[in-house]
Amino acid sequence: MATATSPSRYTPTGAGFQNPNFPNPMGRYDARVIIYGYTPSFALCILAIVLFAISCLVHVLQLVRYKTWFFSPLALACFLETVGYIFRSLSSKDNPYHIIWFVVQYFMIVVAPVFISASIYVCINKLITWAKSVGYVLDQWWLSPKLILWGFVTVDVLTTILQIAGAALIGSSQSNQKDPATGNNILLAGLAVQSFSFTIFLAVLSLFRFALFKHPEKSTAVRAKDWFIAALAIASLLVYLRTLFRLSETAQGLFSHLSIHEVYFGTLEFSPVVLAVWILAVWHPGRWLPYDTAAASRTSRVESSSGKEKPRANV
């Protein structure tokens, strides 16, 4: 007999997973199959709730301590992840067929990384501002702080809306016993554009760091930020890994190999995101950015008022 988390049993048509240990209550909001492709692990849900809830508290405390309100989206991301896994735990223990539990947890878990990305974009924005304040001339259009912040955030918001719409359509199709291909294609389109956009962002991040290498005379100032830049890069790569997993999973189609084995969700969705938020909690921008940026701005204003031109490094 299949266990509670086994993905081996399908409906007679092969169109989804039904858990023999969890009979379908056939309620108003119940799909005919478990849309997850398995019954979610309750242990994973509890682990996620604990880790994300603690990380949310840590980020909120650091927001208050360092007054880094620009980093608020990351605390919100941790909160959304916590709520998402609470609803996922309801699917695990209460009713895995319930469409509302599935859609809410999907919404929260998919939207949360957008706020993590937004926080990373703000940090790059701050780093470029800092680099200019210490004398670098970063005039390339692709290093425009406003373009990086609002350009990538806009793409993330639009593609996330597509993903949520696709997931909701999949849930509705499963409930009404209709073909979910349209919803899956919408979901795939959103993920494809988001992955492409984040690839461009990683290229911009790399080019920014290489630009700083060009001037060894300023290596002391750069080394002071290297740990933070490295942490930011690792967190970005983790978010990127998670996005590529979602893209691959969706490209395979509903109830494919990746989607019906929770081990992939645990290692390529949960793990990268929880690592990213904790890395950014340890290497919090409050300890690396705000004071230097404020001091540099004051210095720049003093020099401007005294008529002095500070030396600048061309990049």
In short:
By secondary structure, the protein is mostly helical. Helix content is 70%, strand content 1%. Helix 1 (42-66) runs antiparallel to helix 2, helix 3 (99-133) runs antiparallel to helix 4 and helix 3 runs parallel beside helix 9 (290-306).
Largest sheet: 2 strands, parallel
Helix and strand content put the structural class at: mainly alpha
Which stretches are low in confidence, meaning pLDDT under 50 for 5 or more residues running? 1-14, 292-315
Number of strands: 2
**N to C succession of SSEs:** HHHEHHHHHHE
**Main sheet strand line-up:** 1-2
Strand content: under 5%
The best one-word shape is: elongated
Helix proportion range: over 70%
First and last CA, distance: 65 Å
Description:
This protein is mainly α. It is built from nine helices and two strands; from the N terminus they run αααβααααααβ. The chain has helices at 42-66, 72-93, 99-133, 145-175, 181-213, 219-252, 257-260, 262-282, 290-306; strands at 136-137, 313-314. The protein has a two-stranded parallel ribbon with strand order 1-2. It is elongated. It starts with 41 loop residues before the first helix and ends with a strand.
Keywords:
315 residues; disordered N terminus; mainly alpha; disordered C terminus; single chain; two-stranded parallel sheet; 9 helices
Q: Layout of helices and strands, plus pairs?
A:
Elements: H1 42-66, H2 72-93, H3 99-133, E1 136-137, H4 145-175, H5 181-213, H6 219-252, H7 257-260, H8 262-282, H9 290-306, E2 313-314
Parallel strand pairs: 1-2
Helix pairs in contact: 1-2, 1-8, 2-3, 3-4, 3-6, 3-9, 4-5, 5-6, 6-8
